[in-house]
Amino acid sequence: MAEEKQDKSEQFVCSACGDKHPQERETGCICRCPEIIAELEQCMPCEEEIYDVSELFRVLGDLTRAKILFALSQREMCVCDIAEVLGMTQSAISHQLRVLKQARLVRYRREGKAVSYSIADHHVKTILSMGIEHVAE
Amino acid sequence: MAEEKQDKSEQFVCSACGDKHPQERETGCICRCPEIIAELEQCMPCEEEIYDVSELFRVLGDLTRAKILFALSQREMCVCDIAEVLGMTQSAISHQLRVLKQARLVRYRREGKAVSYSIADHHVKTILSMGIEHVAE
DNA sequence: TAAACGTATGAACAGATATTCATATGTAAG
DNA sequence: CTTACATATGAATATCTGTTCATACGTTTA
Q1: Cβ–Cβ of B61/A70 closer than 8 Å?
Q2: Whole-model pTM?
Q3: Which residue of A lies nearest to B45 if distances are taken between CA atoms?
Q4: Is the pLDDT of residue A3 over 50?
Q5: Residue contacts between A and B (CB atoms, under 8 Å)
Q6: Spans in chain B with pLDDT lower than 70
Q7: Nucleotides in D strand less than 7 A from protein CB
Q8: What is the pLDDT of residue B36?
Q9: A36, A44, A57: residue with CB nearest B57
């Protein structure tokens, strides 16, 4: 009976490769063939790599942090000056600098009582300006 | 008396410009001069522009959406195929595609019952690959 | 027209997160 | 050593956000 079912044209012409495939997809969707699904699954980056990328963008994707990075892309600054430029509290800035530090997007060094922050590397500047460019269209 | 106070070296040598400035900063920090603060405030992008940039990165900064964009950067795909490749439900993918649509990062077109999604423009691919490059180091 | 299928969406819930407040830490000056 | 100042941080809170579930919508086919 299972045989009969299979013989009774439980197949469809794949729109992607032109071949015929049995309807064995879990989702029920038959618009693409299983081979192509498998191929895509194969060429996807590994979980860790793709997580790191989304993590990078997540850190950039906050208004306060974006402002901080813009300011630091102009010049090295201490915490309270960043706070003044952005019109925010020292505590809020400090918390966000911690996030940026952990993501290795900024560097810091002590200068007496103050701590001076700066952009970690030119890569960060490049990604930032890519973002501006895209938004400006 | 206010005059006396000012005369009594209520000034400091600015480490940035070498000039002397009165201690009139609200935060109390005197590590940078007011002129430089003002200059930075001036060269900061307008609120709307910087918001749009952070918004762009915010949308990219989610694991599921990053995966979707990676998949779509390989080929145009329908919703249920994306769901299968990522091993997630159709609903979850559809909700995220809505976010990507609103951010104009993906395009879509009906193909019979199915809806095919694709990357909106090459700019998106570029930003994505910049992210990968940065993470790979 | 009814059934099947692919997709979209509203409500609900759990988990993440940004700011505030209070306070601790580290450094320099008196 | 005490005081002042710049920064860091833990706790609390309000807000945001991603997934699930149920269901509606739109298209095709019988």
Answers
A1: no
A2: 0.87
A3: A70
A4: no
A5: 166
A6: 1-28
A7: 4-11, 17-23, 26-29
A8: 79
A9: A57
State how far residue A51 is from chain B, nearest Cα, in angstroms. Answer: 6
How far is residue B18's CA from residue A68's CA, in Å, rounded to a whole number? 25
pLDDT at A72 over 70: yes
Where is pLDDT greater, at A69 or B3? A69
**Measured distance CA(A24)–CA(A38) in Å, rounded:** 14
**Confidence at residue A24, expressed as pLDDT on a 0 to 100 scale:** 55
Task: Say if residue B89 is in the same domain as residue B32.
Answer: no
The answer on A78 and A57 residing in a single domain is: yes
DSSP 8-state class, residue A8: T
Query: How far is CA A7 from each of CA A87, A132, B64, rounded to the nearest angstrom?
Result: 72, 58, 39
- Tokens linked to B98: 């809505």
- Quick one: pLDDT at residue A14? 64
Whether A54 and A114 share a structural domain: yes
> Residue A118 maps to which CATH number?
1.10.10.10
B74 touches strand D (CB under 7 A): no
| Rounded-to-10 torsion of CA B25, A86, A105, A90 | 50
Tell me which residue of B83, B29, B7, B95 sits closest to A93, measured CA to CA.
Answer: B29
Q: What are phi and psi of A15, to 5 degrees?
A: -75, -15
Chain-chain contact of B85 with A51 (C-beta, under 8 angstroms): no
The Å distance, CA of B90 to C1' of D22, is 14
Contacts of B81 (CB under 8 A, 6+ apart): A29, A31, A32, A37, A40
Give the mean pLDDT of A98-123. 95
Domain region containing B21: 2-43
pLDDT in tens, A17-48: 666 666 556 666 777 778 888 888 888 999 99
